[in-house]
Amino acid sequence: MRAVGSAALLAAVVGCAGAGSSGPQVAATHVDMQAYASQVVEHTNRARGAEGLEDLEVSGCAADVARQRAAALVGQEELTHAAMDEVFAACGPVQLAAENLSRAASDPSDVVGAWMASYGHRANIVDVDLQRVGVGCVPDGERVLCAQVFLGAET
């Protein structure tokens, strides 16, 4: 999901309920969620680098909101994007915000690979107007549920 300005004009992005796996499977009960989230950021920046783009700066505020958003989705059958109002309220003022979601039993590189294979998720990752990122991951059964929150420039 992506929202522009504090009025939160929303444009839906297709959800990513799971990631295809070419790498090792992970069991959420054995995963350090903070390390997993950091690896998602690392692989996201590698994907941006492969496109000739600068790394995203890590935002503590975006990571906090991402953890809250991920926790709110635990146990839900479908991953659904929430309005970005709470992102604007917590991390604003910003011109733009976006979100990617994933629930997977695969490693962080596979999660980012699945996002890069999805038009809407890829668009968020390679958007030059999005400059900061925070990732929050939580266990959801045997899978890892992650929210990736992007922030644009401050207004």
From TrEMBL:
<keyword id="KW-0732">Signal</keyword>
<feature type="signal peptide">
    <location>
        <begin position="1"/>
        <end position="27"/>
    </location>
</feature>
<dbReference type="InterPro" id="IPR014044">
    <property type="entry name" value="CAP_dom"/>
</dbReference>
<dbReference type="Pfam" id="PF00188">
    <property type="entry name" value="CAP"/>
</dbReference>
<dbReference type="InterPro" id="IPR035940">
    <property type="entry name" value="CAP_sf"/>
</dbReference>
<protein>
    <recommendedName>
        <fullName>SCP domain-containing protein</fullName>
    </recommendedName>
</protein>
<feature type="domain" description="SCP">
    <location>
        <begin position="42"/>
        <end position="143"/>
    </location>
</feature>
